[in-house]
Design a protein that fits this description.
By secondary structure, the chain is mainly beta. Helices cover about 5% and strands about 30% of the residues. It contains five helices and 29 strands.
Length: about 550
């Protein structure tokens, strides 16, 4: 197979290694990236792959699938034949996960057109609710210089909304919190908070509960700071210096500008804030039986569980609430090295997404499902596909999965508990289990891979619905790992961002997440579900021109 060699400096790779004390001499390293051919079925983006309905067996579960097509203001509901049955259309781009309420209303995050300060994947700023006919019922905005909604939301049983938001902290505030100054971006850092919003329709809402990462920090870097401590003795706290490996390597402003021009970065990105998003919370889920919240920190390679029964004051501290620990962590899983109770060999999660509770009444109720995105091949010494693509300036449109050898998996994790139901916290060992209770990987391992986005949720019959985000691939898999339905998003509506760019043109079919709903879901009661006419036209991928010549990459 014909190859193209991209030269990537080891200095960039060092940006993704942990706690290097001495700068190392720059040495170039060759990476062979294979050119796409029609017979290559393992292209990471799948831009030229067959799309639409791929397969449907008699074991496929009857129902419907809800998703937001790429680069679009639309949300689609399709049947298991891949036919579009219903469409919601707003005025703002909605690239994240939509949810269908039992009353037939749609709720989703949308991108505020002029949010300031923040510049990270999953940025939103708005939550909007529509009725079945597409009429806007509620609009909530949190997109200012200090805060920004992003990534995910969860509708609570009382109708309130849990959501994730960044909050901006200055370099001085990060330093005062014990953060290693080498890890502090010039623009400061953006820790996460979780808020509960009581809607006031038709617009706005009251924040009635909140939890801040910034209130639950520990560090072993600076003894002069009040949150200094031994990590292994403080597993309920989050080490502010745990993560030093960022999504993007250091880049000069000229390179950032080039990537903005081709839609790979939004307008707010700069060389000063590439490392500001140091946690990247990408999912939030609620368990009403336990009154607990699980959320995923991608860049820490962990998910965490906290107590929602606290009031806001208790959520700031370490006492109070149903479980007695205030807003401190009740449980954590994925990377015990973060809290001094393991090393790299004990790590289980790699840039994971969509950590969520399995609901009551479903097989595995109370367990945690998570999409484990970027599991490192033991022979792979590179920092991950996305990092290498950005380091190369001009992302190859059809990189083969086999070129990097990383892969993805879906895990079902059963937290270890005491007799009273509280989570087991060993005296000195990491929180268990050591391995997931169930997992899915592709039979050949490497053909199932999405370095970003993605998700999975348990279905009532015990099957699992999976979204492999990079390719826009959705499928239903049985407990025995048999795929019984598969569909690839064929749509891209070329929505233009305020700066005029089409977002991520090299990944035109990407899908943050999709959700399967059974035919008896209450939202469909009394609804006439017939194919829309005409059906939306599929998108045909055409290679965008590269911003730089490959032989000029250093």
């Amino acid at each position: 197979m014909k190859t193209t060699k991209l030269l990537i400096a080891c200095a960039l790779l060092l940006a993704f290694s942990c706690k290097e004390q001495e700068p190392k001499q720059e040495v170039t390293k060759e990476i062979e990236i294979r050119q796409w051919k029609p017979e290559d079925t393992r292209s990471i983006q799948g831009n030229r792959a067959k799309r639409g309905l791929i397969s449907k067996t008699e074991k496929a579960t009857p129902g419907y699938v809800l998703f937001n097509p790429s680069n679009s203001t639309k949300t689609f509901l399709i049947d298991k034949e891949g036919t579009v049955l219903h469409t919601w259309n707003g005025e703002l781009m909605a690239p994240l996960s939509p949810y269908l309420l039992e009353n037939g209303n749609l709720i989703r995050m949308e991108i505020d057109p002029d949010y300031p300060t923040f510049a990270a994947g999953g940025a939103a700023g708005r939550i909007r609710e529509y009725d079945w006919d597409g009429n806007l019922l509620w609009d909530f905005e949190l997109a200012n210089e200090k805060e920004l909604l992003h990534h995910d939301l969860e509708v609570l049983p009382n109708g309130n909304i849990l959501a994730i938001a960044y909050e901006a902290k200055s370099p001085a505030e990060a330093l005062a919190a014990g953060m290693n100054p080498e890890h502090i971006a010039k623009a400061g850092v953006w820790p996460d908070k979780i808020i509960e919003i009581k809607p006031t329709k038709p617009s706005g809402g009251e924040i009635v509960w909140e939890w801040h990462l910034w209130d639950h920090l520990v560090q072993d870097f600076d003894p002069s700071k009040k949150n200094y401590g031994v990590l292994a003795d403080n597993p309920r706290k989050i080490n502010i210096n745990a993560h030093v490996v960022h999504d993007f390597p250091p880049m000069p402003e000229e390179q950032v500008s080039e990537l903005k021009k081709i839609g790979m970065f939004p307008a707010n990105f700069s060389s000063d804030n590439l490392a500001s998003d140091f946690t990247h919370c990408n999912a939030v889920s609620y368990n009403p039986e336990l009154d607990q919240i699980v959320f995923s920190f991608k860049l820490f390679n962990e998910f965490f569980i906290i107590d929602h029964s606290t009031n806001t004051a208790e959520a700031k501290g370490s006492e109070g609430g149903k479980y007695g620990h205030g807003g401190d962590l009740l449980y954590r899983w994925g990377n015990p090295e973060n809290y001094g109770r393991g090393d790299k060999e004990d790590r289980m999660l790699y840039n994971q997404h969509d950590a969520k509770f399995i609901p009551e009444g479903y097989p595995g109720a109370g367990h945690i499902m998570v999409f484990n995105n970027d599991i490192l091949n033991s022979a792979n010494k590179y920092p991950g596909l996305i990092a290498a693509m950005f380091a190369a300036k001009s992302p190859d449109p059809e990189i083969s999965i086999a070129d990097f050898g990383n892969y993805s998996a879906v895990y079902e994790v059963v937290p270890q508990t005491n007799e009273d139901g509280s989570y087991l916290l060993p005296e000195s060992e990491p929180m268990g289990p050591k391995d997931p209770n169930w997992s899915y990987t592709a039979p050949d391992k490497y053909s199932f891979y999405s370095a970003i986005q993605s998700g999975a949720h348990r279905m009532k019959n015990g099957n699992t619905f999976v979204t492999s985000g990079f390719r826009g691939r959705m499928f239903e898999v049985t407990p025995e790992n048999e795929i019984v339905w598969e569909y690839w998003n064929p749509f891209n509506f070329q929505y233009r961002l305020p700066d005029g760019n089409v977002a991520a043109p090299y990944i035109p079919f990407q899908q943050f997440r999709a959700t399967h709903y059974d035919t008896d879901y209450p939202a469909f009661s009394g609804k006439k579900l017939v194919p829309v006419s005409p059906q939306p036209e599929p998108f045909i991928f055409k290679m965008p021109p590269p911003p730089v010549q490959q032989d000029s990459v250093h």
